[in-house]
DNA sequence: AACTGAGCCAACCGCCGAGAC
DNA sequence: AGTCTCGGCGGTTGGCTCAGT
């Protein structure tokens, strides 16, 4: 019946590791490589749980780890990624070579969260506290208007949580490349706000929902449209823990296939602030972005900026180091899944400056 | 010098999906 | 088919350090 237990939990050492124990793990890994952690304590002569050994290795002993302070660039990337994908520390850490999810998580909890709070920005929603209060005021208003909130919820559900075939968010053929994303905000305007002037006051609250739904949509669509969507990463992204607005949706299939997880672990310049800022400036100078069409590109694993197509991806890390073997030789100008999210976020802001909450320089 | 509280971070906890048995 | 472990994940905690009193 099942496997035998990996270790006697009550009889193993716990707590801080000694230099001698570290040396044993290092010696074992150098001789036998990584794998089968349950056997490591026995083979290495350690009175530790295998899981504990694995954690010690991955969080501290790995030779590729950086133990110095986080750079401002890393800091900014963490903030932006947290804003885009929330507390997916392992995903964020993959964009920061030499950093572990534990490092990033600790740095966030001890430094960045406080830093944002001091700047008047809510570290959870990345919105200014002033707007949080404003939203709170609107929510109070909503709670006092039972009929209108019922109507609002009904419209919201029918507009945003319907099946993709009838979804107002995604219009057109869901099985072709002609899928067109309509900004949800626009849909709601058409379907419910247009005939109800009072409903505009619901916008701030809707924007919060909208932001979450857009993230959820992105992950659902990208993961479901990729040929290899069975990875743990995808599962984690769609896990019910992650979002409060979970709705089961049949996957939308597109004609393109991709390994979307490649975007997460690859990035020629994940920071890419020079390029990123340059692109942003170009976007600004070109006026409104083609948000509607490019949203679809995200779903297909393609990111465009103006006429520039980031359809293929380099695989180097933050320092230009090769971080994995997923190399696309056709790569000319690189981007990543995470960068794509950030791009789209900024595009949305530039297209709907008066509707979406403002962006902040951290 | 002794105490206290904050900051920090390594390690643990508990959950989950995948897969072994 | 059911039970269990493994590996991975995010959340939490224990204990160390250090500045302030």
TrEMBL record:
One of its GO terms (molecular function) is DNA binding. Residues 9-65, 66-116 form the HTH myb-type domain. Keywords: Developmental protein, DNA-binding, Nucleus, Repeat, Transcription, Transcription regulation. InterPro entries: Homeodomain-like_sf, Myb_dom, Myb_TF_plants, SANT/Myb. This is Uncharacterized protein. PROSITE patterns: HTH_MYB, MYB_LIKE. Residues 9-61, 62-112 form the Myb-like domain. It holds the Pfam family Myb_DNA-binding. GO terms for cellular component: nucleus. Residues 232-243, 318-328 have a biased composition (Polar residues). One of its GO terms (biological process) is anther wall tapetum development. Its main location: nucleus. It is found in: Nucleus. It comes from the Eukaryota. Residues 225-248, 310-335 are annotated as: Disordered.
């Amino acid at each position: 019946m099942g496997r035998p237990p990996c270790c006697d939990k009550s009889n193993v050492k716990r707590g801080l590791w000694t230099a001698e124990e570290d040396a044993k793990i290092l010696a074992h890994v150098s001789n036998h490589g990584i794998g089968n952690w349950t056997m490591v304590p026995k083979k290495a002569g350690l009175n530790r749980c295998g899981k504990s050994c694995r954690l010690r290795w991955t969080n501290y002993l790995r030779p590729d780890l950086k133990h110095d302070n986080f750079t401002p660039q890393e800091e900014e990337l963490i903030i932006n990624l947290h804003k885009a994908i929330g507390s997916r520390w392992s995903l964020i850490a993959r964009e920061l070579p030499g950093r572990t999810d534990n490092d990033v998580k600790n740095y966030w909890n001890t430094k960045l969260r406080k830093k944002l709070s001091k700047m008047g920005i809510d570290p959870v929603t990345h919105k200014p506290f002033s707007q949080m209060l404003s939203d709170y005021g609107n929510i109070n208003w909503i709670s006092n208007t039972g009929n209108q909130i019922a109507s609002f919820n009904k419209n919201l559900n029918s507009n945003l949580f319907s099946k993709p075939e009838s979804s107002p968010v995604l219009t057109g053929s869901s099985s072709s490349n002609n899928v067109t994303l309509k900004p949800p905000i626009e849909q709601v305007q058409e379907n419910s706000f247009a005939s109800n002037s009072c409903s505009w006051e619901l916008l701030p609250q809707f924007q919060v929902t909208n932001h979450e739904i857009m993230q959820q949509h992105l992950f659902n669509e990208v993961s479901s449209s990729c040929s290899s969507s069975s990875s743990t990463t995808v599962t984690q992204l769609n896990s019910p823990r992650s979002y409060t607005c979970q709705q089961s949706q049949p996957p939308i299939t597109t004609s393109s296939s991709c390994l979307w997880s490649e975007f997460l672990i690859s990035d020629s310049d994940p920071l890419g602030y020079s390029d990123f800022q340059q692109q942003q400036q170009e976007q600004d100078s070109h006026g409104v972005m083609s948000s509607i069409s490019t949203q679809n590109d995200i779903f297909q694993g393609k990111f465009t900026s103006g006429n520039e197509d980031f359809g293929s991806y380099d695989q180097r890390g933050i320092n230009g180091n090769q971080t994995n073997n997923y190399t696309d030789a056709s790569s000319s100008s690189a981007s990543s899944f995470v960068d794509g999210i950030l791009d789209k976020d900024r595009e949305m802001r530039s297209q709907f400056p008066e509707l979406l909450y403002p962006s902040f320089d951290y």
